[in-house]
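User: Need the bound-state model for N-carbamoyl-L-aspartate:
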Amino acid sequence: MALPQQRPILITGGRVIDPANGRDGIFDVLIADGEIKAVDQSIPAGSLDGAVRVIHAGGLVVCPGFIDIHTHLREPGFEYKETIATGAAAAARGGFTTICAMPNTDPAIDNAAVVDYIANRAASVPARVRVFGCVTKQRAGRELADMEELISAGVVAFSDDGDPVYDAGLMRLALTYSRDLGVPISNHCEDHELCPGGVMAEGWVSSRLGLAGIPAVAEEAMVARDISLAELTGGRLHVAHLSSAGSVAMVRQAKERGIPVTAEVCPHHLLLTDAWALGGKGDPNVAAGPLAYDTYTKVYPPLRTETDVAACVAGLADGTIDCVATDHAPHERVSKECTYHEAAFGISVLETALGTLMSAVHNGDVSLPTMIERLTTGPARVLGNGLSQYTALTPGTPADLTLFDPDAAWTVDVNQFASMGRNTPLDGVELRGRVAATIAGGRLVFEEPAVLNKGETA
Ligand code: NCD
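Assistant: Bound-state model below.
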């Protein structure tokens, strides 16, 4: 991300929540030359030269820009689903200033040339783009990718996401390298043998719809295997899109035993249940429209039960789960306008993430500063590779910030998305909590005038 600089920005009167510096209060923030220049109780605009843009942020939260360590940008290979440019624009609308491109592209990100290609394509988009490399060559699960070459090219972690690292011996080897290289292995935990043909969570909804189920144990069996391998090797295991109560319990216990494991949870697994597959936006008594179900709810891992949702929320609140990650998985329309079995797995998440997450805050289950921590310092800690400079509102550091109204109610309209992926079951649903502005590298990369105006008039 190397965009031309803009004039200085002075943000006044917002509630600054800066978990890295333990700050939560009303402050002014001055940004110039791409950096945070000052954070103070009062920075008079008169003391600055007239070219400064003043944003009155009364009633808004001002915090470090969100970091997403699980974003499917689809480029190269699937540009009809998303491009790096449209994904980055969606990130800016969602308040994310750093996103991590997942390697299930075509070609897959298993060599330095593909990493370089992505870095070039990301040079002038409105978000910082970091890259995950494949664990195995072509994500085929047979032979490790050249992890050292990929690290030299700049990858920040490894994953075969979309598929698990199925072979336990290979996973052991990858974790051993990860220990020595200091970079995590993020695994998509799914034991195929336990869910042949499964398309949604196994339970009463899958029975009612006559759809093949995916039991929670398909995730949990591999989480258990991977925790054992992390203990054996000392390698850094990261559990991607963790979604079941059993997985949360295992990660909690592993951490208590000092095993090097981290985990992420997606916004949809903190709010939606398998009942959403019935097509009534979560109301089990409302039948779907022309189809018997809503294919936009098809996602991996599947939406599960209330118990699983509650366990994920509790795990995020108590730190068992280190961070939120969107698993933004954009798909073209035809891959969802079909039968549930044929539909692609995945939800477009970047632009609804904050509104979805804020329900856990409004319900009193996760405090607002904790939620912000899980979107900033939390993901940076998982990668442990220098993203921390983007997670603190400290003078002298790059100015990546998100401004949002925690209370603004709005209705999701996929036609407004910057993402090419309009695949979300939340279309038409009212959420509370909306991004007002996103600043990346000192540059205002997104502003929503209707929300920013609240600060102007507060
Ligand atoms: C992801 C995709 O479409 O790439 N789909 C999904 O349902 N989450 C793959 C993945 O993250 O498992």
